[in-house]
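Field reference: sequence -> structure
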Amino acid sequence: MRSSRIVLVLPDAPLPFGGAAARWFYALLRGLVDRGHRVTALVVAEPADADRSRELFSPDRYDVRYHRPPVRNGKFKKLESLVYPYSYLYSRELVGEVEELTRSRDSALHLEQLWSGWTGLGRVDRCLLNIHYLYDIDLADERPTSFEGRLRRAMTFRGERALLRRYPVITTLTDRLSQRTREINKKAQVTTVPLGFDSSLYRFEPARPRGERPVVGLIGSFGWGPSYTAARRLIERLWPEIRKRRPDARLMIVGRKAKRALAEFTEGLDVELVEDVPDIMPYWNKLDLLLYAPGRGSGMKVKVIEAMALGVDIVTTWEGVEGLEAIDRVHAGIADDDSGLIDRTIEILEAPESTRIDRRTAARSLVETNCDPTRSIEKLESIYENILSKNHNSRFN
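Structure field:
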């Protein structure tokens, strides 16, 4: 594809070991610039993350502009946030930059994650909106008991659908998300573009040394619904039976808000909770197996992809491998019911090392194929080209 002018809006700093979305943003920004595109990235980030990102994206090569989330107080601002969910992330200055940078019809606007759609409403004709997850799926079974909770849920659904219906060109990470998006916006051009993940940053260890006691664990951000429900299920329903069958096993749960969210459920149990660590990699190295069994949670699960890249054995649900062409007992142990998850955990812990190496190697290969950033960016390039071609032709018709 010829070099294009692309404006990116990113709701998190592009960092190779940042949050789940940040890893894709890192691969996306680098990949587009490496392929010769003229990119300006407008990034929402707190100062610490912005500083870390600046060290990776030098201004002589990358045009990255950082915006802090605005401080908004008062009843009017709360009402605005209710009517326009999550719009509070995006300052007026950022929205103004979007409008200025995309004034020319030779610029394509790429918005990452649904709520960044609030910034591009004046440029929907030259925009690609990328969807990572949908509350329409994730909150479908949630029934808040308070009036405020019910109102917020209703307004979130309303805002999500309103944005989806405004944009004519949409990409999503998985076929499940694409199908639901088409149901909401029947006129949109919807394309599945898997999450790009730079697995070269992860040292793959197919033959992981076993400790005296196998460590089953969960790594995540426990303020996020799917990770929280997965932790509760692991502690309350799965771990007691696993411990009966493997008394020597240990359970370790690591991540943001781990103690605050889960301490009351682990009291009196032999569960190690580790919260808000500066570097998660040493804890990955301690795990023999990641056991991640979320409730509803659409989109691709970066913790599963990361475990596969590192060579950590995995037991999860079909929800956990959404967007991956994973096969049960080939790439991971995959089951939706408690007994199936428990059986696969014991099966992996007791498997010969050669079997575990084969599974880890297959999982790493799956990530390299399904999540290849170059393939994802090539798909995006064809969409940019189509957007820019339509806008070019419209000037002369």
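Note: The mean pLDDT is 92.
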